[in-house]
Structures are given as structure tokens and as C-alpha cells.
Amino acid sequence: MRFVVSALFLLVIFSYAAAFDPLDPNGNITIRWDIMSWTPDGYVATVTINNFQMYRHIMSPGWTLGWTWAKKEVIWSAVGAQTTEQGDCSKFKGNIPHCCKKTPTVVDLVPGVPYNQQYQNCCKGGVVGAWGQDPSASVSAFQLSVGMAGTSNKTVKLPRNFTLLGPGPGYTCGKAKVVPPTVFLSPDRRRKTQALMTWNVTCAYSQLLARKNPSCCVSLSSFYNETIVPCPSCSCGCHNKDSCVKSNSKILSMVGVNTPKKDNAPLLQCTHHMCPVRIHWHVKVNYKEYWRVKVSVTNFNYRMNYTLWTLVIQHPNLNNVTQVFSFDYKPLVPYESINDTGMFYGLKYFNDQLMEAGPFGNVQSEILLKKDINTFTFKEGWAFPRKVYFNGDECQMPPPDTYPFLPNSAHQNLLSFSALVSTLIFLLIAIW
């Protein structure tokens, strides 16, 4: 019995630790309910989903929000969203509610619905951007008219057992808590109004709950070593090799390729790592005062486009980024004394969508970094990332002892000289 209790205690502690992200310690999704008015048998509420995560967004097919009513509430109507099931409304005569289920499940509406069904920040197919990438896109909202509920702050019972899919598992939601009513500012910013009652629900993400295997991996190479370190074998599990296809000229004509399935089942290109996404870090050039890195992101999934993708890299020299060429870049400084993490994402309307596997399923950029003579070295794998995240999930790194090593005969001055010569030759060819 003591062993069982200890195991349960460790499981609880481990689950909470897994939900903590050291690169985004304050990141969460907060669901806010604002009661805007009372009705004869309930209230009208605005439900707002705020994504306060710096680099983890909710991608297509979007969020799914569920809860359990505390009493016998029903949803008379919904604007900007809809429930997936109506439930048994047979006891109602005449006016039939939108949903009578004890445990309703709500999804966002898709773009293009009629104007009278829309609500502010709705109708994006459930896609919610990351706060660090685009705060204006990190909000989703809808309105509910709830009946058979309390008609005052003292009689309303808070829903419980909140669940959030974003779009798959991974989020764990806490209890609803009453907070000070939300204050709203009028369009002319001269008048303040407030909700009649507000409660919040906070949801945290855990990669361990989302999936048992990583969803991406990292490969490495450098100009000073001919060895290319691939992703570790079976980085993302090898159990699904039956659902992969070999990459060849016939792939584009296969039935089902590049066609999403209703269950969102992936169709991967057959690789030794079996990951949907691979990030490649290549140490490209060494200058006297700078060094240059090329980063490539490749999609091996034939049934998914990654929109609003994000790439987070932890490296000690990211405190001295001089220029990023084909991506947007934003430093992440979760701790004031440490600046070694950066977030990269696509340029709008250019490469902010990582296309499905194939000739266009790749985005890449180069990063120019200024050297710090006190820390810079090519030895002992210093030039390679410590951690890499894609869309908020940590990628599988190669073992440190396999990193491309600096040849013993190589000297920093020789490397700088050869890089300088290469640059001069390139410039002469360009001028010629």
C-alpha cells in the first residue's frame, strides 16, 4: 500500500513538472467567461480563449473546448461557435435549445460563415496564434446564451471538468475560479464598462500527455567536417512504418497522398527517423568577427501543412544575433540574466506556411552571429544548439558524442583565413 501511494505521489509530481516549460515559464491558455447580461432563466456570456504561450499555437483543425454543467443548464444559442452535438432536447416544446448535453463540446466556426453568425475574434477554424509570434492572432472568442441557470452572482454555478484539445491532447485544465469582473473600454476609449461576473480557467501543456514520441528531430553538419550527423534512428518511433511511403516520382500520383483524412492520420515519407519534421543546423562559414549558420526545416508529412509554424532554438551565441535572412526572429528572455534562446518563424505571405512533404515542403534561412572572444569556439560541439523546439514540442537531438568535431590539425586562424579567401573568390566571381 505504501508503494502504491508513493508511486501515485511521484506520478502527480512528474505530471506537474512535465507541464512546466523552462523556456516559457508563464505560458498557458486562459479561458475567460464574462457574464454580460442576465436573462429570465440564465445569462449571456462571452467566452474568450487567450493563448499566452510564447511559441506554441493551436493549429488546424483547431481547438475543442468541453466542460460539465454544474446544474441542468442548456445552451439556447451560440454565436461565433457551435457545439458538436445537440443532445436530447425532447422535453422542450416550441423553442429548442442549441445544446442540451450535460457535457457540451464546442468548436470554432470556419471562415466565411454568414455575418449574423460571427463574433469578434471568431471563425478562424479554431486556429489561435502564439502570443510571442502575433498577439493580435492569439485570441479566439464566442458568445453563449445559457438557460436553466442562476440569474444572479449568488445563484450561478460554475462549470467544472474543463477540457481543451489543441487540436490533440496535451492540455490539462484547472478548476474555474471567480476573478474580478473584466473591464471593457468603449471604442472611443472614454467610457469603461464591466462584466457582471467573471471566472477564469487556466490550461497548461505537457508534451508527455500530447504524444509518447517526439514529433521532430535535428540533424547537424559543418564546413570543417565532412560528416553529416543524421537524426537518430526511430527518433519519432518506428511503430508506424506501415503508414509511410517511399519518396519517388510515382508518389504524386498515389491515391490518398496530399489528401487529409478525417482522423488526421499522417502519411509520412519513409525515413530512418520516421519524424514528420526535421530541422537541420549547418555551420556554414567562419569569418574573423562573425560566423554563419544555415537552418532548414523539412516536412515529411504528405497530409499536413504547418501554418504559423514556430522554431525555437537554444544556443549561447543567440545573445549576439546580427542578422536573420529569411525568417522573422524574436529573442526569448524568460530569465533576465540569460539570453540564449530565440524564436524563428516565417515571413508573412512568404514562408509562414510549411507545405506538405514534396518539392515545396521546406523552408530555410541563414543566421549571422557576432563572435564573443570570451566564449566562442568550434570545439566540443559548442557551435550546435542545446535544444530545438518546433511548434512548441522539443525535438530529438543526436547524441553529443556524434557531433561533427573540429579536426585536430585545424586552427582558428587557418579557418578564418580560408573563409576570408572563399569570400573574396565569391565576390570576384560576382563582380566578374
Automatic annotation (TrEMBL):
Residues 1-19 form the signal peptide. It comes from the Eukaryota. GO terms for biological process: cellulose microfibril organization; plant-type cell wall cellulose biosynthetic process. It is a lipid-anchor; GPI-anchor. Keywords: Glycoprotein, GPI-anchor, Lipoprotein, Membrane, Signal. It is found in: Cell membrane. It holds the Pfam family COB_C. One of its GO terms (cellular component) is side of membrane. Residues 215-404 form the COBRA C-terminal domain. InterPro entries: COB_C, COBRA_pln. Coiled coil: none annotated. PANTHER family: COBRA-LIKE PROTEIN 4, PROTEIN COBRA. Belongs to the COBRA family. This is COBRA-like protein.
